[in-house]
Automatic annotation (TrEMBL):
Residues 6-125 form the Gfo/Idh/MocA-like oxidoreductase N-terminal domain. Residues 140-262 form the GFO/IDH/MocA-like oxidoreductase domain. GO terms for molecular function: nucleotide binding. This is Gfo/Idh/MocA family oxidoreductase.
Amino acid sequence: MNDQVRLGVVGVGVQGRLYAELVSTGRAPSLRLSALCSANPKSRSHQDHAATAAGLGVPLFTDYIEMLDSGEVDAVVITVPHFEHPRFAAEAIERGVHVLLEKPAGIYGKQVTRMLDVAAEHPQTTLAMMFNQRANPLFVDLKSMIDSGEFGALRRTSWLLTHWWRPDAYYASSSWRASWGGEGGGVLVNQAPHQLDLWQWLCGAPLRCFARLRFGFRRDIPAEDEVSASLEFPGEASGVFVTCTNDLVGTDRLELSFDKARVLVEDSLRMTIHRFVDDEREIARSISAEDAALVPSGAFDRSVFFSSETREYTSAWGEQHSLLLDNFGKHILDGTPLIAPAEEGLTSVRLANAMHLSAWTGQDIDLTTFDDDLYLAELNKLIEAEGRFPTRA
């Protein structure tokens, strides 16, 4: 390696083609596209993959291990089916090939932990996550403000995320979609992982979870298409997460209430910040009895205690992915800190697992002592009941 890392793209679907295009057109300057891998030479799309590779001037491998051992790649970005993410990552890491892994890190905590153990045995090899929303300028700004302490302690947060509408034909397009054995779940493992990651990135790793899920509620699928979860975050902060794939209109609304501010994020592109003149508790203590009597009727003017600011953001398709790709390459070349280390991928996987497990058992789940073996046993019961895929270990 000189001033660029040679990158292989594993899986030439929608995401794989995007990454290949971004790197080949110079939008991640620290990387150079050097290979593609399409594992099934008999697939209907394989000729298209071959044409893509030829057009980009790179070899097309049909065997992943052969590509890793070819000497053509220093690093790979992995976009294979979710269940295979940890295994493919471990194969590369054991060969000293750096890995950028598409979300999620895996389907269940046990397989992600095994992958992280392999990575720990090879500390010179980079393992990172493609959590591209962490490069959304809105969330970059919000994370910076939270970490600065200017908002004070988090009290409460909610994310209403119902804009993932998917029609029946989407689920019918592949037998693995929203199945327990083929995909590992529904909206929590396919559409929502980015927001689960962002939520814990902004608020801290959740401590407890209680969830109600609907399985095949408004879609003919075995897995969840509707989720309502209540969480406990560090510092006694509470949280509510609602998501689904059956809301035709849909909403993306994140609220965060702090001691000294209230933040509203809409559509992940607009942020309204209310900054308080003091800690809300001190403001409440300062109100006289006469003024307090005016509060219920709305006659008391609370606006004197806060200022408001609204910020609008734009984020072109592919821009966030380019930043994550380039950050990955720069980390390999000069140690630039990773935006999304792979260790943090385990938190969002376990959060989705906890929501599943709470719904299956009807119990409150402690995430600080999460039982990966219990989760896998319950998941395998559902896979066996489907009868279409092998159970997992």
